[in-house]
Amino acid sequence: MNPTAISVKNLDLYYGEKQALKNIHVDIDERSVTALIGPSGCGKSTFLRTLNRMNDLIPNVRIEGQILIKDTDIYSDEVDVEMLRKRVGMVFQAPNPFPKSIYENVAYGPRIHGLNDKKKLDEIVERSLRGAALWDEVKDRLKDRATGLSGGQQQRLCIARALAVEPDILLMDEPTSALDPISTLKVEELVQELKKNYTIVIVTHNMQQAARISDKTAFFLNGDLIEYNDTDKLFSNPDHQQTEEYITGRFG
Ligand SMILES: Nc1ncnc2c1ncn2[C@@H]1O[C@H](COP(=O)(O)OP(=O)(O)OP(=O)(O)O)[C@@H](O)[C@H]1O
Ligand SMILES: [Mg+2]
């Protein structure tokens, strides 16, 4: 069994009066893939964003409870949120490269963290693009604009951009929902590769995808975490009837 990377205890989240997460408890394993599933509006993205404090950017959000990463409560006052987001990177649903070159997209994070050494940046760009399984496709056109890449390549570029600052944890919110089947497969293969070195938490609406790529799955419904289980178990013999109903397509 892997050690715990993220420990969530008694987590409640409110948007104004509305409670979007209800008393969530979860321990997420290091160097593994954890899938978050559940119907639209159940709180998957909200939960994912609590893990690197992206909800801080939304007005009227109130969060109670604890999220421990390496024994530090990420909501405590002494936490440097910039450093937290460096350690806990994020990839979004629609690929969102900056309107810059491929090279500059990947070098951006290290640069804002103060790195200017050209040789070191070159190394990071190559390593990150290799890590995102994109290097061979772009190595001869690093100066081209990133927006000229295909959607699938852009998404892998966004993964490379996240890897460039050497995170421990990668959060992915429906990273393949805008991609064609072949690009989706590439990202899925990449996730399998990345979990050797990173802890990955991924939201997906695609249950086959969750079953294929994750080690554990969390099923959310109306802000409650209904079931958190080994993926094989959750999809073959879930402990809860609501999970059974959801995975067999009876609602959601
Ligand atoms: N910025 C916000 N302000 C107010 N309410 C919000 C905000 N973001 C989300 N919510 C509400 O919180 C609940 C959970 O939303 P969330 O986006 O986390 O769901 P989700 O499971 O990711 O859904 P989807 O599968 O459609 O992406 C919903 O009722 C939503 O309307
Ligand atoms: Mg969402």
Any chance you could write out the topology, listing elements then pairs?
Layout: E1 4-15, E2 18-29, E3 33-37, H1 44-50, E4 61-69, E5 72-73, H2 81-87, E6 88-91, H3 102-112, H4 118-131, H5 135-138, H6 151-163, E7 169-173, H7 181-194, E8 199-203, H8 207-213, E9 216-221, E10 224-230, H9 231-236, H10 241-247
Parallel strand pairs: 3-8, 3-9, 6-7, 7-8
Antiparallel strand pairs: 1-2, 1-4, 4-5, 9-10
The structure holds adenosine-5'-triphosphate and magnesium ion.
Structure characterization notes:
This protein is α/β, with parallel strands linked by helices. The chain has one domain (4-247): 3-Layer(aba) Sandwich (Rossmann fold), CATH 3.40.50. Helix content is 36%, strand content 27%. The strands form two sheets. It has a six-stranded mixed sheet, with helices on both faces. Strands 2-1-4-5 form a four-stranded antiparallel sheet, covered by helices on one side. The structure holds adenosine-5'-triphosphate and magnesium ion.
Structure keywords:
252 residues, alpha/beta, Rossmann fold, six-stranded mixed sheet, 10 strands, 36% helix, globular, binds adenosine-5'-triphosphate, binds magnesium ion, transport, ATP hydrolysis activity, Phosphate ABC transporter ATP-binding protein, PhoT family, phosphate transmembrane transporter activity, cell membrane
> Largest sheet at a glance?
6 strands, mixed
The main sheet orders its strands as 6-7-8-3-9-10
Number of domains: 1
What class, by secondary structure content? alpha/beta
Query: In sequence order, what are the helices and strands, one letter per element?
Result: EEEHEEHEHHHHEHEHEEHH
Oligomeric state of this protein = single chain
The CATH homologous superfamily is termed: P-loop containing nucleotide triphosphate hydrolases
CATH class: Alpha Beta
Q: Provide the CATH topology.
A: Rossmann fold
**Approximate helicity band:** 25-40%
Shape designation: globular
